[in-house]
Amino acid sequence: MYPLLQPMRRLVLLALLLLATLTLIACSRPATTADATNSPTAAVSTGTTAAALSPTPNARGVLATATADPARAMQHLRELTTTIGARASTTEGERRAAEYVRKHLESVGYQATIEPFEVDLTVGATGAVRPDGAADIEATPMSGSPDGDATGALVVINGPGRAADYAGVQARGAIALVTRGDATFAEKTRAALDAGAVAVVVANNQSGQFRGDLGTDGARIPVVGISSEDGAALKAQAGRRIGVSAKTQRLKGTSQNVVGRPSSAPCTAYLGGHYDSVPAGPGANDNASGTSLIMELSRARRIEGLCVIAFGSEEVGLLGSRAFVRQHGVAGARFMLNFDMVAKLTRPALIGDADLAARASALAAARNFSLRTTSSIGPGASSDHASFIAAGVPALMFYSGDDQFIHTAQDDFANTLQADLAKFLDLAVALLDDLYAG
C-alpha cells in the first residue's frame, strides 16, 4: 500500500457515506398528493386523497383503490349538464361529452378509446288527413309507410278492408277509409293497392289514436291511422277530394362509445352507463348521473379486467350497448353493472340478474338503503344492461326510480341530489369489493 493513497481513500469513503445518507433521506420523505393520485383530477379534490396507483394487480386483481367521493361525481355531472348541455345522439354535444369522459379515464390510469358506430333509424313520423274545406286531422303514419302526399276522392270501405270489400267500389285513384280490426294492416293495404287506391286511412275501432306496423314488406302508398272520433267525422267527406301526407323523421350520423380498459388484459366484467340525453334537455338524472357515478367509480376502483363503458345513443334504442356487444366478444363475462338515473331517489330499484340483485340488496340493507328488485323497468322501457343480458352476461341496473322531469328541459343539474347519488356510489363500491373479495 502506498502511503500517498491513504488520504484519498478516506475522502472517497466520506463521499460515499454522504451520498448514502442523502439517498435515505430522499426515500423516506412523505408522498405528496400528486404522487398519491397520479391524476390531473386531483386539482378538483374535495379532501379525498387517492391511494397510489399500483403498477401490478394484487391477488384480487386490484390495480388502484381510493375513497369514492360523491362530490367529485357531482362535479362531473355539472360539467356534463351545465357546460356541455344536451347530448343527443350524433350531435356535437354528444361528441364533446365522449371526449370529456375519455380524458377522465386516461387521467386515472385507463387505456381509453372512442369507438364510433353509425346511426341510421326512424325516430318519429308525422302525418295528416286534409279534408276539403275542413281543418286538418292529425294522423300517425304506419311503420313501413313511405313518405309522400296523395290526393283523391274519399271512398269509405265497409268491412275490414279485405279485397272482397272493394267489390263495386270505384277505388282507382281514390283514398280508402277503412276501419281497424279483423285483418292485418298489411292485408288492408294490399287490398287497397290492388283496387287502385293511392292512399289508405285506417280509423281506430276504439277511442283515441294508435300506432300500426305494415310488416317487413312495407307499402308503396301512404298509410296513416286516425282516431275513431276523427274517422266518424271523416265519413261525412265521402266522395269529396281529400289529401293525405306521411313523413318519417330519420336520424343519421355517427355516435360513439367510450371504452376504458384498466390494463392490456382482456375485459372480463363491465361497468356502464349511457352519457347521451334527449334533445329536449341536458339529461342530468337521465343519465349524466350514471355517467358521473361510473367516472368516480373508475377512479376509486381500478381492477384488472373490469372495463368501463360510457354508451352513446341509448335514448334512441340502446344503440351504443348493442354496438359494443356486436363488436366485442362479451360472452363469458362475469357481470355487467349498469347505472341509469341514480341521483334522485323516488322508488329505487335493482333491475336484472337475480343473483347480483340479491347480493347488492344484502349490502344495501346493511346500509339502511331499501331497494326493490325486479326483472325489468316496465313496459316499453329498457337500458343498456339489457343488451348484455341478451348476450348471456349476468347484468344488473341501478335505478333511482321514476322522475317526472326526465326527457324534459327540467332534467337539469338542479334536478339531482348529491346525497342520493352518494348512496348508489357507496353501494357500487361495496358490491365491487364483495365481487372481488378473497
Write the layout of secondary structure elements.
Blueprint: H1 5-27, H2 33-37, E1 62-65, H3 70-84, H4 92-107, E2 111-131, E3 137-141, E4 148-156, E5 175-179, H5 185-194, E6 199-203, E7 223-226, H6 228-234, E8 241-261, E9 269-274, H7 284-300, E10 301-303, E11 306-311, H8 319-327, E12 336-339, E13 349-352, H9 354-365, E14 372-374, H10 385-390, E15 395-399, H11 418-435
Parallel strand pairs: 4-5, 5-6, 6-7, 9-11, 9-12, 12-15, 13-14
Antiparallel strand pairs: 1-10, 2-3, 2-8, 3-7, 4-8, 8-11, 13-15
Helix pairs in contact: 3-7, 3-11, 7-11, 9-11
Describe the protein's architecture and organization.
- The structure is a single chain.
- Strand 5, helix 5 (about 185-195) and strand 6 form a beta-alpha-beta unit.
- The protein is built from eleven helices and 15 strands.
- The model is unreliable at about 1-55 (pLDDT under 50).
- It is of the alpha/beta class and about 450 residues long.
- The strands form two sheets. A seven-stranded mixed barrel has the order 2-3-7-6-5-4-8, surrounded by four helices.
- The protein has two domains: about 35-110 and about 260-435, Aminopeptidase (3-Layer(aba) Sandwich); about 120-250, Glucose Oxidase, domain 1.
- The radius of gyration is 31 Å and the shape is elongated.
- It starts with a helix and ends with a helix.
- The protein has helices at about 5-25, 35, 70-85, 90-105, 185-195, 230-235, 285-300, 320-325, 355-365, 385-390, 420-435; strands spanning about 60-65, 110-130, 135-140, 150-155, 175-180, 200-205, 225, 240-260, 270-275, 300-305, 305-310, 335-340, 350, 370-375, 395-400.
